[in-house]
Here is the input.
Amino acid sequence: MAKGRVEIATEFCKSCEYCVISCPKNCLAVGEKVNSKGYPYVVSANPDDCIGCAMCAQMCPESAIEVWRG
Amino acid sequence: MEKVYTKTQGIFQDVVSGFCPGCMHGTAHKLVGEVVEELGMLDKLVRVEGVGCCGLGQSYVSHDVIIAAHGRACAVATGVKRCSPDSLVYTYQGDGDLASIGLDETVSAANRGENFTVIFINNGIYGMTGGQMAPTTLVGMKATTAPFGRNPKEHGYPMHVCELLSQLTAPQFIVRTAVDTPQNVIKTRKYIKQAFQNQIDGKGFSLVEIVTTCPTNWGYSAKDSLTFLREKMFAEFPLGVYRDKDKEEA
Ligand SMILES: Cc1ncc(C[n+]2csc(CCOP(=O)(O)OP(=O)(O)O)c2C)c(N)n1
Ligand code: SF4
Ligand code: SF4
Ligand code: SF4
Ligand SMILES: [Mg+2]
Here is the structure.
């Protein structure tokens, strides 16, 4: 069981990758799908490794990431 | 599972910001929202906005906004706070706005120790208008108005706002910080909270400078702009607390 979970509001993501490089568990990656503004948005590629630390969310300039822990 | 991070009510929930990918104006906006939400004072919050990419914030933040004429935010905020002392007042200004056209208003408000909070976004460039040289542009850094790079003989040297203002007697709190790592984001949130708490406690002028990226006008991807930020911007603009009267008195 993963210790944490993230939800990415895909329409808000601008693909800056600040979250990707800040995740200590390498959970996140730019996905293959594109949002309506044309940005390939970030997805949780390794959700099982998530520890709910919220480092990704702290970094996100667009407040696109919600985090759960427990 | 327990929710541990969510979007602040200080910005509209359904509005996508107008900022470029990787622009840290967005980070600064959410931090102000988070701090004031935590203080339970979003309904008392008044933002006095400069001119520049900060203007993209006026349809993004959910609290009251006054748009000052270019550079005049500290003068307008002085009037707002003096007439409405129960409001929680902050200016939100870029380096072109605060340190170029508005330098007089900034220095004068700081020198009077006005009781409001300044959020100062230093990205070393005029972002909104397409990359003209700012007072904070680095030596050798290219701008549309300095195509061969800033040359001190012609353009002078980068201006250090925190160092300049900390020569004055009145200011309560002056800090330069960054939001390039989760750790620095957490630190900056703490500084912004202190800057607003100072105002609530009537302690006077508090300024938080955030050294940020402008990937678009620097000509880098968001990720590469972090390298320029750390290697070049932080070298010219050292992070740290330049004034904290609480600590000096303690
Ligand atoms: C009186 C006046 N002069 C010039 C301008 C053009 N102008 C708009 S924004 C700006 C500079 C903004 O730079 P900065 O404050 O660094 O903000 P940034 O966009 O980089 O965040 C200028 C010169 C203006 N709007 N009004
Ligand atoms: S919460 Fe932590 S572990 Fe989970 S994706 Fe975000 S940074 Fe990675
Ligand atoms: S930090 Fe935010 S905007 Fe940037 S890639 Fe991650 S989710 Fe998208
Ligand atoms: S031009 Fe620069 S400062 Fe303005 S929104 Fe884009 S990255 Fe941010
Ligand atoms: Mg600027």
Notes: The radius of gyration of chain B is 17 Å.
